[in-house]
Amino acid sequence: MLAELFTTGLVALSAVSLAYFLVVNTTYGGLSILAIGHLRRHRRMEAVSPIGADRSGEFLPEIAIIVPAYNESAVIVESVSALRSLEYPHTELVIVNDGSTDDTAERVIETFGLERIEAAFPIDLPCAPVEAIYRAPDAPVVLIDKENGGKADALNAGIHFTDASLFCSIDADSLIERGALAEIVEPFLTEPTRTVATGGTVRIANGVRFEKGRPVDVSLPRNRLVRFQIVEYLRAFFLGRTGLSRLGSLLIISGAFGLFRTDVVREIGGYEVDSITEDFELVVRLHRHLLDAGEDYAVTFVPHPIVWTEAPRTRAVLSRQRRRWFRGLLDTLWRHRGAIGRRRYGVIGLFALPFFLTIEGLGRLVEAAGYLLVPLLFVLDVLDWPFLLAFMLVAVGLGALMTALGVLGEALTYRRYDDPREILVMCAYAVAEAVTYRPYRAYFATRATVEYLLGDRSWGVMTRGGFGDEA
Amino acid sequence: MIDPVAAGVVAAVVVFAAYVAMTVGATALTWYHRRRTRRRDHRRDALRAALFDRVDREDPALDDWIAGLAGEDRDLLADVVVGYLRTIRGADRGPYLAAAEALWLGERAEAALDAADPLDRVEALSTLAVLAYPIDIDAVEAAAVDRRTRECAARLVLERRDEIDHHRHRGTRLLIGDGDEPLSVYGLGTLESLTTGRESPLLALADAQSERWHPDLLVQVCRVVEHAEQLDPDAPLDWLFPLLEADDPAVRAAATRAFTHLGHRRDLRRRIPINALLADESPRVRRATYETLAYWGDAVARDRLTWSVISEDDPRAQLVAIRGLLSMGADPDRDSPGWPTEAWAWIDAELAVSDRRRLPTEAS
Question: What ipTM, to 2 d.p.?
Answer without folding.
Answer: 0.90
